[in-house]
Amino acid sequence: MTSFLISGIVCALGLSSSVTAVAYGDSVQKSATEKQFSQEFPEGYSFLKHIGGNGPYSERRSYGISRDPPDSCAVDQVIMIKRHGERYPLASTGESIETSLAKLYGAGVTEWKGDLAFLDEWKYYVSNKCWYEAETYSGPYAGLLDAYHHGATYRDRYGDLWNGDVTPFFSSGYSRVINTARKFGEGFFGYNYSTDAALNIISESETLGANSLTPVCYNDNDTDTCDNLPTTMPVFKVAAARLNAQNSGLKLNETDIYNLMTMASFELNNRAFSDWINVFTQDEWVAFGYLGDLSYYYCAGPGDKNMAAVGAVYVNATLSLLNEGPEKAGPLIFNFAHDTDITPIVAALGILIPSEDLPLDRIPFGNPYSIGDIVPMGGHLTIERLSCNATAMSEKGTYVRLVLNEAVVPFNKCQSGPGYSCSLDDYTSILKEELPDYLTTCKVPKSYPQYLDFWWNANTTTDLNYQQGPIGCQEGYTMS
Length: 480
Known about the structure:
33% of the residues lie in helices and 12% in strands. It is an alpha/beta fold. It has two domains: 3-39, no CATH class; 44-441, Phosphoglycerate mutase-like (Rossmann fold). Strand 8 and strand 9 (397-404) form a beta hairpin. Helix 3 runs parallel beside helix 4 (175-189) and helix 10 runs antiparallel to helix 13 (424-434).
């Protein structure tokens, strides 16, 4: 068999000009010196994974399982809960940031040097205190852009499930959450948003009991660890000494470092670039991120003995939707709430829980409870119901798959279905046996709703699809 050089095929394949393609009959081979896969993983460290829940959305680091449905399966129902998009700091956080900035600028430094040399031109990104609490709308990481893009992406992925009927979707009653829901709706429904989507706003009032996207525990007796978490790390003292040494008169301490790092982690929500990020080392950012992990774990996650019961409200209700199926319950159930409403759900599902409580005096590397992967701004948990044909490994039937920030996370106790999914029967049986009871664990007053039913009693009017009037300064709870 004759071999010959084919430079045209090299160009067509996009191969480097230094690589020779050799044809043997109908096959084309690359030079044996070129690797098919790179052995480098330069993204082993990413700033976005070490800023807790403060900064821009990033997809979850996956286990290598395909995001697309297994070849034998089709998605027939989707249940999603999404955190609001990127925002400015809370007003209380802003106060701490402004205190440290005042200390910085009040030090009498006439010319900034070293890591802070950029301060001669830098300006704080919150020039109007009314922006505190609000979702951002400018820059490539803007919260409203995130929500719209997510809606458009899910239309591409799940658009075949929309049959043209008016589709209710659900938001908790907080301004930035509602705005996220609306932008997602515009992205998903496109030209049809104004007539064929129906936003339902569910109050965040504690009196709603279990009929809420934001249930609370009325038996709040597990806060000792949460109330006494560390707020600084030893490396923050090193950072303060470094910056103080570079600029005479500066007297920053560990708390200032934490506040300035918090400020930096929010800056990208509004701007394309933050000089502050490079002020601090990778080690310092790793420590900062772990403080966020601790906060969510002990205050709104599995480190609080009540949180799995809070998350069980949502998980129990989704079991009903999944078992009713798309014909009865509908194929698309989109929900929008807060980060601390999603972490209890993750706890209730029993996924990403460390083998032991997170230590307060060191960083346990390899910790599965990394908040940058669980609830970044715009973070979301999607439950897919799969209709699958029989394969050599699994029977024909209905299966369930969990997708967190666009990465498949297998259900711990059941992974025997296609694509490491779980049969709906097994998934239902396991959760019904293991889910804690919200009513008794959290001592829900009997005068409050005892179960979630707003999905089954949704409005199909479009009255709330758009903002009614201007958004107030630092507006929080709202039903408009």
